[in-house]
Amino acid sequence: MNLTMFDARARRWLPLAAVAAAVLLAGCGEKKEKAASQTAVKVNKDEITVHQINFVLQQQRGLKPEQADAASRQILERLIDQQVALQKAEEQKIDRDPRVVQAVEAARREIIARAYLEKVSETAPRPQPDEIKKYYDEKPALFSERRVYSIQEIAIEAKPEQQTELRDALTAAKNINEFIEFLKAKDYKFTGNQAVRAAEQLPLNSLDSFAKMKDGQAALVPSPTGVQVIVLAGSRSQPVTEEQARPAIEQFILNERRRKLVEDNIKELRGAAKIEYVGKFAEPAASAPAGAGTAPAATPAASATPGATAAPPALSASDVSKGMGLK
Questions:
Q1: Could you give phi then psi for residue 198, rounded to 5 degrees?
Q2: Where are the domains of the chain?
Q3: Segments of the chain scoring below 50 in pLDDT
Q4: Are 203 and 313 in contact (CB under 8 A)?
Q5: The predicted structure's pLDDT at residue 186
Q6: Which fold has domain 145-241+311-321?
Q7: Burial of 70 (0-12, 13-18, 19+ CB in 10 A)
Q8: Which pLDDT does position 251 carry in this prediction?
Q9: CB under 8 Å to 235, separation ≥6 — which residues?
Q10: What does the pLDDT read at residue 294?
Q11: Phi, psi for 227 (deg, rounded to 5)
Q12: Contact of 234 with 148, CB cutoff 8 Å
């Protein structure tokens, strides 16, 4: 916001504010107790308020009530450090540096646009119990028939024309050691890894294929640098009841609705706007499609499980090879 305009507005509203204050005081009768100050500390000519501290405090996730007071004091000290640095920067006119001005404007755009999109997403209705049950019933591999998978992964550097040879060798191998010996004999570069992943830690579009695999089966899927072989070394059943899954399913469906609302709203706004690409960006190849960069949806259980392990690429049913007797 233009500072001159802000100052002008402030001066215009000051007389009205004074009148309002006088009316409030008159209505209080004999109650003339001074309102509690919202100032936490004065730093030279500036003040740091309780509101500023509370704003930062609200960003601290997982903070227990008994930790709030100590955290508030730590935040205040950081705000003091920030304020003295800000005052010195303004003294040296760093706030007028074109790069700083550009960064501030970029942050302003980001904050305001995000606030608008959050407001749009808040209109999404919460899912009803029957919708939650329907989702639970339609995803047995994720809930009622949930399994925890022990997986062996082999990342192989290969050219596209080598994939057929690798697929045939994988299908013919009696066990994973035999396939690895094949890779060594053919001088393929590869790395191996072992992981234990629950159903919710796998991509949703590959989960059904994983659920159909039996212990000892393997799958070969393309990767950016070649192929990845995924061997199901073992698995164990660990189902989740509808009651256990309900909070995660509800949040997942709600998040999907919010995402769709935002996506549709942006599409509508872009459709109504006059957008004209200029210069090199006018070239068709440089024009990114609307909604590019949108992150793919997570599975409901994964979204409710912080720190979930990165999942392997999606599989198709035809990728699952048989006869790898690894059990």
A1: -80, 165
A2: 36-96, 145-241+311-321
A3: 1-35, 286-288, 290-327
A4: yes
A5: 93
A6: Chitinase A; domain 3 (3.10.50)
A7: exposed
A8: 94
A9: 147, 148, 149, 150, 215
A10: 42
A11: -140, 160
A12: no
